[in-house]
Amino acid sequence: MMTATFLIAAFVLPDKIWTANYWTFGSTFKHFILPIFTIADEILFPGKHKKNFPLLGMVIPISWCFIIMRRALSARAFFGGAIPQNLWGQYYPYGFTNLDNGRSLKGLCLLFLGIGIGLAVFGFLFLLLGKLKARKERSADV
């Protein structure tokens, strides 16, 4: 998940991340520094994680999706059906989560599901590469 955070921040959302409003220590730390350390940890110390780690690593992002969507749905009910456009940034942290910009709840759930499946596959591939590297190093030592 940390690798995905870095890739999304660097390549999918660069126009938002690189603006002065988002270029803070907290944003830099969680979108760049922490993911780079996580990637380096897996490269330097492969095989230290359990085989189901990619699925466990998705618990927090999935929870975040539910919390964000519940908050937005509650706000929509409070505002009588739609959040005013000048408040979108407070309720929708990313443009693709915006239900008041033409996206349906079903479409957003399918998008989250697709992203989750893609990240799980990516996580297991990353784990597999680490195991293959560790196995190659062990066979070279013999």
Structure description:
It is a single chain. The longest helix has 37 residues, at 105-141. Helix 1 packs across helix 3. The protein is mostly helical and 142 residues long. It contains seven helices and no strands. The two termini are 34 Å apart.
Based on secondary structure, the structural category is mainly alpha
Distance between the ends: 34 Å
Number of helices: 7
Number of E-state strands: 0
Quick take:
By secondary structure, the chain is mainly alpha-helical.
Fold blueprint:
Layout: H1 2-12, H2 14-17, H3 25-44, H4 53-56, H5 59-78, H6 88-91, H7 105-141
Helix pairs in contact: 1-3
Any descriptors?
142 residues; mainly alpha; 70% helix; elongated
